Amino acid sequence: MKVVKKKDLERLNEELRGIEGVATALGTHTSTGIPDDEKKINQRRKIFGSNTYKKPRPKGFFRAVYRPLDEFAILNDFVNVVAAVILFVATYGIGSCMPSSARKSKAIISGDEIEVLRGGESKKVSKSEIVVGDVVCLKIGDEVPADGLFLRGNNLQLEERDSEISGRAVQVVNEENPFLFSGSQVVDGYGGCQMMVTSVGMKAKWCKMMRKPSCGSSDEKIDTVEDQVYKLTCSIRNKVGLPIALLGLIAFLARYFTGNTKNDEGKQEIINGKIKVEFWDSSLLEFIATAFITVVVVIPESLRLGVALTTFYSKKRLMADMEMVSDTSVSRCETMGSVTTICTSKTGILTMNRMEVKEFYLGEHSVLEKEAYLTNASTHVKNLLKEGIALNTSPSTPTDKAILSWAVRVLDMDMEVKCRCLVLRPDHRDDEAALNINSQKKKRSGVLMKREVDNTVHVHWKGEAEAILEMCSSYYDNSISRNPIDLDDEQKVKFRRIVQHMTERSLQCIAFAHNQVEPVDGCHTLKEDGLVLLGLVGIKDPCRPKMKAAVKDCQNAGVDVKMFTSDNISSAEDIARECGILLDTDDQEGAVITGEAFRNYSEDERMEKVDKIQVMANSSANDKLLMVKTLKKKDGIVAVSGNNSNDVLALLEADVGISMGNKAGTDVVKKVSNIVILDDNFASVARLLKSSICIYNNAQKFIQFQLTLNLAALAIIFISAACAGEIPLDSTDVLWLNLIVNTLASLALATERPTEEPIKRQPVGRKEPLISNIMLRNLLGQVVYQIVVVLTLLFKVKSVSKKRNTLIFCAFLLCQVFNEFNARNLESIENVFKGIHRDIAFLVCTGITISAQVLFMQLYSYQEDGYFVMLNLWHWGICFGFAIISWPIDWIVKCIPVPKKPLVNYLSDTFKVVAQFGMKN
Question: What is the pLDDT of residues 280-298, one digit of tens each?
Fold first, then answer.
């Protein structure tokens, strides 16, 4: 209903005749709900829709592989195409399986039940079964399941996801604001709070907002590793493979028609311009096929298989560790390894969302411990405190739970106090005795009660210290006297300093006050002045264990951690220091700001100051969204971790949205996030970051290894074709390399686990290329070495062609196998065997590759017309010797420094200059 979505109270009352009129129009009753008739309920679903969210259509296996098959069809008639298609199809097959498993795991999250009235009777149904017209019963902690109108109840407060709300509770009353929206959280309320559903599912206000282009659809989306690999594959094929294949073919044709080629029997093919051999026996056919083989060789389709295997294996490992319960987009695991900034909410993620009493003041003195309390407090004050807490505190909020737990443990309070007192309801107004007076800044609650022992009437107040202090004229100190002390202005200043001191240490300060009430005209009223201050309690939501270490791990990885909170600046700064987000050595100017201050900056000021901001206090949903957008404009890759409805906009806008999936996270947050953390702990986000960096690094390792093989093979084929008129690597060699070496190498390099050592590397950034300067340096060094090895064997070995080609093939393949060790560490010149004893999968895959190569050569060489010949131990020693030399070569190459600016960007800039010059001329 548009009236509800627009909060149009005037139209609701005038045109629709109020809530009763809406109920009549929807065929429901505000007291009994809709009829409990399954047939009529299903009819409502057909008319108004169901309370479910549309999910993307699952991508089946054949739909997933259609695209690669279509791309590769042009090569399906040539040598090696079968192997390439198998590898390419496997890549997409694995990729298509992973999202489906993620969808299955995500289904575990949903399915919460909620109480509704149907046919006048209360029953529990799944949230997805709610229909328009249902009367829903709400209690503290519930998430509003759909849009609707408030019917009845007292002091219903919601934490709404409206972008204009600053994250604090908002009171909902019939007269002023009867509108409720899906996803809001009930934080307070009593007296049987109920709502009537007017819109469900995809027709709810928030779902329509999420579908707007401004929600989570930034102009520039980050390319995942898979996207970058796809672009790299196409670029190599179009810009390298085809041109070099064409040049190689032209070079060979020039040699062929000038009479510089011989067939397999050693006969010159063209003499004095005349062809002397049959076409089918000539080398021309072989070289035409070779041109297409070259294209196949330099298309690194196994890159995509390697990335898919890496992600699949690592994701399964994360789920086994119970860090991640669902990932709606598998590629987000890789993206997480590239983030530059993590923005996180405070409550329930950095902190435990479990309040604890940390301070208790009697008068001006702290008496938190039980012994100090028993020694310093008079029996009279003890009884008053027990009475006030028992009658004026309910275990409905974390704050009240903390007070009750502390009172039982320290004050020896028992609930028999309630039996000795009678809560009064003056003027016969329901729930008047538990009157609550609220605002966004001040909150307090009072209760009027009568003692059965002496029939005296008393009032007890509890609430924010500043509000209660204004109601007090005296106080009890830590003496055993029953007489209160006057609370003058000077003494109030002292108490305000105590409150301020607590606030600066991120303590929530709650005050208790009391007074005996005398009847006025025979009636007792809830007195709000002239009270006696009983004590001050400081409550804190403590940081989770090992939080500093988790934040430190992120910072060591070059990832900036920023905190969002609705707390004031003092509390936010204290928590940030306790968690390690702020350090004592940090320059605090500009590091901690309010959401309002950030919102009021100009765009240029935000761009200039956003990097220095570590904490945003008093922040709204819009402030969080603005922060994420600003960071992305500065080419950062942003992850957001949140657990309530105020985080939804930021989660949608972030490159990686992480929600909490156990107790802290709401359903709507889980629906819009990419990754769901099970234990509601930021330490798991840090572990996820470490694992994701490992995924990204493993992908880069395989890319370096694969490109080394492809570029070396390409150069060898081109140089040998142009200079020697023959190719030492034929289609059989290429097939074997693709099937065995690439596949097993992807498994070997994909399974390396993150170590316990701190991560020390700079984050990648939004515009950084996948192939770094370090990777280019490493692979070019190995490519040059492998070219030298093969060409040396090609031109210097005087053996017959078959033995020479066999030697070349074995040496080239073993160089790839031993280069896998070099790829284990991209940057460091440390021992390439470091930690290899823990990487069993790597050792197994490497052993299988070498064993398969030896077995393949031995079996193939026994065939009479085989391409290979038997190698003796001396020949095998030569091959292994050339392969082992790649290790010291790699050590030397890694000592060469590289520039900070990516060489890929230099090449791109050069191409642009050349293109512009060509257009001008």
Answer: 455 566 666 666 665 665 5
Q: Cα–Cα distance between 543 and 553 in angstroms, integer?
A: 16
Q: What is the pLDDT of residues 492-535, one digit of tens each?
A: 999 999 998 888 887 889 999 999 888 766 677 778 889 999 99
Tokens 């404009």 locate to: 633
pTM to 2 decimal places: 0.70
In 3D space, the residue among 111, 123, 133, 101 whose CA is nearest the CA of residue 22 turns out to be 133
- Contacts of residue 305, defined as CB under 8 A and 6 or more positions apart, other chains included, come to 87, 88, 90, 91, 94, 742, 743, 746
CA-wise closest residue to 885 among 781, 798, 742, 801: 781
Is residue 297 classed as helix, strand or coil in its secondary structure?
helix
- Report pLDDT digits (tens) over 560-597: 999 998 888 888 888 888 888 988 765 667 889 999 99
Dihedrals phi, psi of 428, to nearest 5 degrees: 60, 30
Domains (range + CATH), the chain = 2-60+112-203 (2.70.150.10), 225-316+689-916 (1.20.1110.10), 324-352+544-688 (3.40.50.1000), 356-540 (3.40.1110.10)
CA angle 51, 55, 58 (to 5 degrees): 145
What does the pLDDT average to over 360-369?
82
Collapsing DSSP to helix, strand or coil, 481 comes out as: coil
At which residue do the structure tokens 């097959």 appear?
93
128, with CB counted inside 10 A (0-12, 13-18, 19+), is middle
Count, in order, helices (H) and strands (E) of the chain: 33, 27
Q: Per DSSP, which regions of 667-731 are E strands?
A: 675-677
Query: How many whole angstroms separate alpha carbon 176 and alpha carbon 149?
Result: 12
**β-pair partners for 262:** 268
Q: How many CB atoms lie within 10 A of CB 63?
A: 12
Residue 195's CB: how many other CB atoms inside 10 A?
A: 26
- Phi, then psi, of 860 in degrees rounded to 5: -70, -35
* CA–CA gap between residue 219 and residue 226 (Å, rounded): 20
Q: Is 148 strand, coil or helix?
A: strand
Q: Which residues in 289-363 belong to E strands, given as ranges? A: 324-327, 341-345, 356-362
User: Within 13 Å and on the Cβ side, how many CA atoms surround 567?
Assistant: 26
